[in-house]
Amino acid sequence: MLKTNKSWHKKWWGILLIIFAIFILALIVASGFYVFDVVQKIKSGEPANRNILSRSVIGGKQYSAEGNGNYWIGSAKPKVTIVEFADFACSYCKNSFSKIREISVKHKDDVKIIFRDYPMHEESLALAMAARCAGEQGLFWLMHDKLFQNQGAAKDQLIELAKQIGADTVKFSQCLDSDKYAAQIQKDYDAGEELGVTGTPTWFINGYRVKGDIPYEVFAGVVEELIREY
């Protein structure tokens, strides 16, 4: 008698394929519920049990954190506004900067990102000043990225970094020496303290405070969920 071939889904490799497909589908569904859960916790102020956001403390109160005179990137009419209090000498901020820049590019029509200074280290003030002095020449975000990419650069290396991004180094040096932005940086720091900032990075996502270096998948998922809810 001739043997009939088993249907593919009855063969060992077919069974494994089905199990794998079910596993992937379960991950996708779980991820969707996870991000939704994060968004609801941000809004409600429920503590972040299960380590819902890495190193984070979530507060349910909405704050007005945008301030004035700060550099921003993205949409002038955003669905999601992200205010970041950061320190150019902070290693966690360095870990975060590429994530937030990727989000700013991916969602440039829906997201506005505002940078505010919260200097916490001895060299932080000079670095914050360097970014703002570059900003005078329309180069804030290039210097922002350069400072994080070269974290640990000494004050006497800032001129070289300015040169690398195409700044007029004479004007840049004069700006640095003048300390003209010290008051604005202090204003940001004072505002941060009033808003409950105790470390960097601290984020205000549509006014809701979230602290810490957030994993990209979670951060991007929260932003996308808030865009959909808009």
Structure description:
This protein is of the alpha+beta class and 230 residues long. The protein has one domain: Glutaredoxin (3-Layer(aba) Sandwich). 50% of the residues lie in helices and 13% in strands. The chain has helices at residues 12-44, 91-106, 124-135, 140-149, 158-164, 169-178, 182-194, 216-229, and strands at residues 58-62, 72-74, 80-86, 111-117, 202-205, 208-211. The protein has a 6-stranded mixed β-sheet. Helix 1 (12-44) crosses helix 8 (216-229) and helix 3 (124-135) packs across helix 6. The longest helix has 33 residues, at 12-44. Mean pLDDT is 84; it is low at 29-34 and 45-59.
Summarize the topology:
Elements: H1 12-44, E1 58-62, E2 72-74, E3 80-86, H2 91-106, E4 111-117, H3 124-135, H4 140-149, H5 158-164, H6 169-178, H7 182-194, E5 202-205, E6 208-211, H8 216-229
Parallel strand pairs: 3-4
Antiparallel strand pairs: 1-6, 2-4, 3-5, 5-6
Helix pairs in contact: 1-8, 2-8, 3-4, 3-6
